[in-house]
Amino acid sequence: MKSHLFPHPSAKAKGFTLLELMVAMSVTVILLGMVTFMTGVSMDGYKGSRDKVVAGRQAKEALDAITKDFEAMVARADGSDNMWLYAEVEPNLSTALGGPAGKTITNAPRLIFFTGAPDRYDGDIGGTNDNGGDVSAVAYRLAYRDQISGTAANAVGAFPSFTLYRHLVDPDATFTNVLGQVNLTAPVAPAVNQFTDALDFTAENVLAENIYELTVTFLVQRSNGVKRFTIGQNTGTQQYHSLVIKGNGILSKADSASTEVAEAGQLVGVEIGMTVLSERGLVMTEKGGMTRQDIIKDYGVHYTHTVNVPRF
Question: Across the beta sheet with 225-231, what order do the strands follow?
Fold first, then answer.
C-alpha cells in the first residue's frame, strides 16, 4: 500500500527563489511607503483642521465678548466735553509689538469705552463685592507679545503671539478714576490712568491669542444716510486714524497729522472684523518664504459681525 503522507524521496522540495523574495520585499516596501505617506498627509490635514477649529473657537469667543460690550455701550449726549469712546490706530503697531518684519498687524484699533459689562465685579453681580455700580470702562488692544515669561509692557519677549487684550475696570474704579474725563488715555483728575501699556498688556487681560487683525468700523447715522468710519493705518476711503465720542458730539481724524473734525450724526452701529491664524500660520509669520497675504489665505479665518449700539 502506498502512503500519501510523505512525499517520495525523489520528489523535489519547492520554495521561493532569491529573485522572488527580492520582488516581494520591494513591493512590500513600496506599499508601506505609500501607506506611511498617505497617513502623514491625513495627519497633516487633521492637524491643520484641528488648529483652525481651535483658533476659530478663540476668535468666536473674542468676537462674542466685544459684541456684548458694544451692545451694552453707555454714553451720554449731555453737551459736556467728557469722552465716552476713544478709538484710534493702535500706537504699538509702529514698534516690534506689531509683529515680525514683513508680517506685521495691519488692522488694529485701540478701543476705550463704557459698557454695562455682564462680568463686572468678576461676574458676581449681586454678590458681596457688588457695590451697585453698573457702568464699567473697558479697553481692547491687539499686540504681538509674550505672556509667558513676564516681559515688560513694551517688550515682545521670547515667546510672542498675536494677542487680543481686554482690560475691564470695575464700576467702582470706573466711577472714581475714569468717568468724567476729557481724555480717556490721559485723565486729568484724579491722576490715575486706568489704561496704560503696563496695565493693559497683562496676562490677566488676555482675551484670545492668534488674532492677527482686528478691524472696527463705526456707523454714524446722518441726515443723508449712514457714514462709515473704519479705524485704519492708511488714509483712504472710509479710513480714519481716530474717532472720539464726547458729550457734545463726534470728532474724527483722517490721519495722525490732521486736526480733529466735528462729525454730524449719531452712532448707531459697529462692524467688527477679526482674522485669526492657526498655529501653523503663526509659525509661518516667523519664517520666510510666504507673504502676509498668502499666510492669511492659507492659514487664516475671517469673522465679521455687526452690532447695533444703544441710542444716546
Answer: 239-240, 225-231, 211-222, 266-277, 300-308
